[in-house]
Amino acid sequence: MWQQHLAILPILVPLFAALLQLLPWGDRPQPKRRAIGLLASILTLVLSIALLIQVNQNQMIVYALGNWSAPFGIVLMVDKLSALMMLITAILALPVLIYGCYAEDNLGSHFQALFQFQIMGIMGAFATGDIFNLFVFFEVLLISSYALLMHGGGKFRLRTTLHYVLLNLLGSALFLIGIGTLYGVTGTLNMADLATQIQQLTGDQAALAKAGGMMLLIVFGIKAAILPLHFWLPQAYSTTTGVVAALFAIMTKVGVYAIVRVYTLIFGPEANELAFIAHDWLWVMGLITMLAGAIGILGARDLRLLVAYLVVISIGTLIATYSLNDIATTGAMLFYLIHSTFITGALFLLADLIAFERGKTASRIVSGKKMANHSTYSVMFLVAAIAIIGLPPLSGFVGKLFILESASPNGTNFWLWGAVLGATLIMLISVTRAGSKMLWHTLSGKPNEQSAPLGKRAAVIMLLALSLTMTIFANPIRSYTTDVAEQLYDIQQYPSRVLTEGEK
Questions:
Q1: Cβ contacts of residue 61 below 8 Å, gap of 6+?
Q2: Residue 491 carries which DSSP code?
Q3: Which of 243, 185, 242 lies closest to 211 in space, CA to CA?
Q4: How far, CA to CA in Å, does 89 sit from each of 42, 125, 182, 239, 434?
Q5: Quick one: pLDDT band at residue 2, thresholds 50, 70, 90?
Q6: Contact 373/449 with Cβ under 8 angstroms?
Q7: Is 179 in contact with 262 (CB distance < 8 Å)?
Q8: Exposure string (b/e) for 36-68, b if CB count within 10 Å is 16 or more?
Q9: Which residue from 140, 297, 364, 481 could staple onto 121, CB 3.0 to 4.6 Å apart?
Q10: d(CA 263, CA 197)
Q11: 25 and 33 in contact (C-beta within 8 Å)?
């Protein structure tokens, strides 16, 4: 019975968990809220795995809420790409929440509930089949992310969060204008139906639809943090708590997902006059975003800020690779997306641990006293550095190898090779410098005695272990991401499945 509702369960579980956590639980509510959150995260992970298995069997799941079939009703459309993104979110969320349960959630009264609301919004954005509800889930993300970024308080955090909110409110306004324009010329907001209607537009209607589509590109660019819309990310991610920044490793991927979905399905190869309207822009912006991230890490004087700019580099790599518009490169891009999500999440948590145990020097890239768990963090940082830079044998190397292998170095692809290899060199210099100053060139004197809980270190190790796991299972993962890309570019199946199926 529950299998037929599997598409909506990863959205409902965190929603109901959040509502339960908001209830008054007496004098000691936090342990109960933590238990609810952990149980919900485990259940969401199990459901995401089950959803991926079911999608592999059925290729696509179409779930019509209230049994109102598309394009008139609200429809969830879960294909291989959606299922993959939902599983990545669930895998990331569990160790991050474990980390947060060690007193991090005490910095704000509703952290646990906001965490689950954030997961609900992310899952909904990946599963929705119509573009208006993508806007709705974006707003859920904006509200919960604003509160999470403020977690712990502080004037500087308030300022950076305000910049984030104002920019995203502008994006929300453009989102409404964009979808309103598309609705005006097509009469629908269902993405599968939009893909069909867009093919028939010509002349002024096509021009209006193009304007609406380019407005959406600005919105998704803000969410993904693509240059010149990336300026909010470094300060916001580097000033918030480590647990929030780690969770937000998936947030930028929501923007990347929206770009891939909309500009492949709606404005893809079947869109006639409007085919690939964004790809030239994405190519240029992807390369420049990589350059901006590389400049940022060279100038970073704080480990958290450095990791934030590493996120910018990874986003640029993903966008530039996707813009090549090829099944092989898109499959390689998805492999790298999985890797970058887990390893940047691990680095944000590790930076938080190091800052805690270093005391006054915190996460500044300067020499300081030895930490209570100095050797452990040195090894963890070395593993994380190898992975994020892209050195063998971990998943970063494999992911970049897949990208370079799929994009042969000729014509415009030469620029991608140059950008990836150049960024890798700069990452090697910057990350090595940070590790040397903070971990290997320590000041003499008595080591700092404050030690982070073992559970926090275990959460980071769980995320770091995923890099090794991806290396071991690189071939089957790459095979799956290629299958995802093949389905993504098989445009005709979306309207045929979504518009003819309306199963509850």
A1: 6, 7, 51, 54, 55, 76, 77, 78, 79
A2: T
A3: 185
A4: 12, 12, 30, 22, 29
A5: low
A6: no
A7: no
A8: bbbebbebbbebbebbbebbeeeebbbbbeeee
A9: 140
A10: 14
A11: yes
CA distance 73 to 20: 29
The pair of structure tokens assigned to 33 is 């809220």
Q: Is the pTM of this model over 0.90?
A: yes
Tokens in use for 24? 């008054």
Both tokens of 504, joined, read 């509850």
Side chain identity at 151, as an amino acid letter?
A: H
| Contacts (Cβ under 8 Å, ≥6 apart) of 167 | 222, 229, 232
CA–CA distance, 30 with 37 (Å, rounded to integer): 10
User: What pLDDT, on the 0 to 100 scale, is given for residue 503?
Assistant: 43
The contacts found for 156-161 with CB under 8 angstroms, 24 or more apart, are 156/239, 157/239, 157/240, 160/232, 160/235, 160/236, 160/239, 161/236, 161/240
Q: Residue 263 has what DSSP assignment?
A: I
Confidence of residue 441 (pLDDT cuts 50, 70, 90): confident
